[in-house]
């Protein structure tokens, strides 16, 4: 689905079902340097079960025109305004990593828009290492290698995908290599600079689920537990052995957790 918004094209997957704003909406928000394809299983499942699905490409990512937005707040406001244009009054927001920061910011800044949150691979604080920031700023392939190394659990490095023939770390590398120059650096810098997560989390009043891999090295489990504790009434679902890319590494378990809350 392509949407003309603010004079630019925005691309989103609708999960293979025509978007219908009269249905309960669920909006999937991707992480740094990525696009809507990281949600391919979950978006299709919800779309075929009476949800209006939008798995968005943020500006400058995937099929959406650039430039990339430089802050988490800007991404949250952009998402809220896009939904206004297409007639979505409220939605469940499922965000991974950077997308989880955006989801919480959106719920804090536009509380009437958020009926539920699914925060995947997220933490109360999400600083980025200086080495990764530096490599990304230099547009060096080391940045992609670091994200791949730190972003997947042990079993993903051995293969371990639920679907025969899918190479998880190779697919992630290819996705990050397709990102436009500067986009990964932009996104990582936005995550590193964001300091309002705890303040925003305290204001969230909608149903919230945190889904976290126990072997996540980018947003460790301790930080995910702190995030769940900071949001009133939030629950956490820990997926043993999974890393930061839990929605791909353990897609079915992630989906089962989200299905109960979204």
Structure description:
This protein has 262 residues and is an alpha/beta fold. 41% of the residues lie in helices and 17% in strands. β3 (25-29), α1 (40-47) and β4 (52-56) form a beta-alpha-beta unit. The longest helix has 14 residues, at 72-85. It is globular and about 45 Å long. The protein starts with a strand and ends with a helix. The model has no long low-confidence stretch (mean pLDDT 93).
What is the compact description of this entry?
It is built from 12 helices and 8 strands.
What are the main properties of this structure?
262 residues, alpha/beta, Rossmann fold, eight-stranded mixed sheet, 12 helices, 8 strands, globular
Helix/strand order, N-terminal first = EEEHEHEHEHHHHHHEHEHH
- The CATH architecture can be named as 3-Layer(aba) Sandwich
- Rg, Å, rounded: 17 Å
- First and last CA, distance: 22 Å
CATH first level: Alpha Beta
**Structural domains: how many:** 1
* Beta-strand content bin: 15-25%
Number of helices: 12
Write the layout of secondary structure elements.
Layout: E1 2-5, E2 8-13, E3 25-29, H1 40-47, E4 52-56, H2 72-85, E5 91-96, H3 98-109, E6 114-120, H4 130-137, H5 141-151, H6 154-157, H7 168-178, H8 183-193, H9 197-201, E7 207-213, H10 221-230, E8 235-239, H11 246-249, H12 251-259
Parallel strand pairs: 3-4, 3-5, 5-6, 6-7, 7-8
Antiparallel strand pairs: 1-2, 2-4
